[in-house]
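Case study 2.
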Amino acid sequence: MTLMRVPWARPDFGNAEKQAAIEVIKSGWVTQGKVTEEFEKGLSEYTGAKHVVCVSTGTAALTTALLAHGIGAGDEVLVPSLTFIASINSVFSVGATPILVDSDPGMWNTTPELMQEHLSDATKAIMPVDVAGMPVDVDSFERFAQEHDLALIEDAAAAIGGAYKGKPMGYFDHTSTFSFHIAKSLQTIEGGCVLTPSAEIAKRCKSIRNHGMSAPYNSKENLHYDYARYGLNFRITDIQSAIGLAQLKKVDSQVAHRNRLVALYKEALGGDYGFQEVPSYVSMHPYLFFGIMVQDTNRDSLAKFLIKHDIDIRICWLPAHRQPYHRTLFRDVSLPGADEVGNKSIELPLGGCSEEEVNHVIKVIRQFKG
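Prediction:
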């Protein structure tokens, strides 16, 4: 078999991104500034979110959102174990306690029903995660949060370009976060944002990302820096924001291309492998990644077979309660849904790949004899 190296994901950067970055460098102002404000406005227009605050990473977005909602020491946050580890670590970073909940083994997302049993007097927030970018049942989580007087912070890191019941992700009546990591449908190399309907939460986020400063420094108005709250340096740069503005024009075509590739995978592999179930309320799945479900005994063998044939894959993810560090913090945790996905899934090349590359991956998988 002819070897073809197929990356798991590659950036979609062209001349528009290059020129946008160069223009910022030529301007003499490269850190967070007016271009970032333009990017925030563009994201607001694209998603329908009333307020958007850009930060340095998706992880920073989660931490900023938690701090803005007043989550801290003594508080518990319900969060799925089946997630990228940033969801868990962001809760630890503000001094709160993450309480791990299970996920539906078909959808891979968690549900309010799976969170219900973990509620306590200390629960102050819930953080459902859109796994692979697929929207959770937003309406049910908003009702759940309202019924129990909880902050709802949706980890929608991979969900830009997705839609729930015809409405774009980030649009809804609660706080959400995006990531602009290089594998996402909108890429600023690193970066993220908080989206919120609340002017007050947005104001706090802008302060938190800038060390807690009461307002951006202006020597004509104040001679010294004033810090009104705890914060960190979570600022994004205008270079990244300029790239983001160019990328924003591509999101819909990026998502459409990913869906075409997913259709190829499903048509070819559907008789032998399972896939993430997509509920009817999902109008558009943006597919950060596409995974297949393999029998436990064959999963690692297939993964090694693909790697041997120069096909880059991921296991997204080993649940948090089984991670080398985190399992010392979460003892005696039983989450069978998360474990099933963690034991069976392999995430195949997708973002930035061509149809030729995907067909090659399919051909290699068909050669596997587990």
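Residues 251-367 form a domain with the Aspartate Aminotransferase, domain 1 fold (CATH 3.90.1150.10).
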